[in-house]
Amino acid sequence: MSRKYGNKIMLREYKQDDLNNIMAWINDPETVKFLSDTFLYPQSKSQVQGFLDQAMSKDWKGFVISDRETGDYIGQIDYIKIDHKNRYGEIALVIGDPNNRSKGIGREAMELMINFGFEQLNLNRIELSCYDYNKRAIKLYKNLGFKEEGVRRKRRYYNNKYNDELKFSLLREEWKEINDDL
């Protein structure tokens, strides 16, 4: 897949050199509390290597979020599920280093990935989920035009209580209304 360029970031292919960067956040409880149970804490190096091997395959539809100038790892954004028949995909996003959060990097990565999904993968619908305590993500998704369409009640046990998982989606026609360049 070709690289995607934003103002501050580049979406690039996964490389073996990314293993240590992924290992740095994947065992950080403050980061993984926002992620799906795919990344249950703790993860061994061999488990992460298995994910990286899959992400480096030619069939993977995801990218490392990196600094535009240096290519240094910041996070990752992936279509974790694609249904070509029904033309929808599910996005997952993580900014690994807390120092890179709240700087517009997630928004820029999402915009590039949404455009990739609608323009190159020919999707009609993009969906995602997050937990109700991830206020920063909820605000981002709503600002991008995603609509909250469902709640999986008390789906995640975190911080000594059960929390809801929120489901969001964005349709091609909605994205076109917001962005005239499609």
Can you describe this structure?
- The protein is of the alpha+beta class and 182 residues long.
- It has a single domain, classed as Gcn5-related N-acetyltransferase (GNAT) (Aminopeptidase, 3-Layer(aba) Sandwich).
- 30% of the residues lie in helices and 34% in strands.
- The protein is built from 6 helices and 8 strands.
- The chain has an 8-stranded mixed β-sheet with strand order 1-2-3-4-5-6-8-7.
- β3 (62-67) and β4 form a beta hairpin.
- The radius of gyration is 16 Å and the shape is globular.
- The two termini are 20 Å apart.
Q: Rg to the nearest angstrom?
A: 16 Å
Strand content: 25-35%
How far apart lie the N and C ends? 20 Å
What is the total domain count? 1
Looking at the structure, the CATH topology is: Aminopeptidase
Structural class, judged by helices and strands?
alpha+beta
Largest sheet: 8 strands, mixed
Provide a concise account of the structure shown.
This protein has 182 residues and is α+β, with helices and mostly antiparallel strands. Helix content is 30%, strand content 34%.
Features:
8 strands, Aminopeptidase, 182 residues
Q: Topology, please?
A:
Elements: E1 4-5, E2 9-12, H1 19-26, H2 29-32, H3 45-55, E3 62-67, E4 73-83, E5 88-95, H4 105-120, E6 125-131, H5 135-143, E7 147-158, E8 161-171, H6 172-178
Parallel strand pairs: 5-6
Antiparallel strand pairs: 1-2, 2-3, 3-4, 4-5, 6-8, 7-8
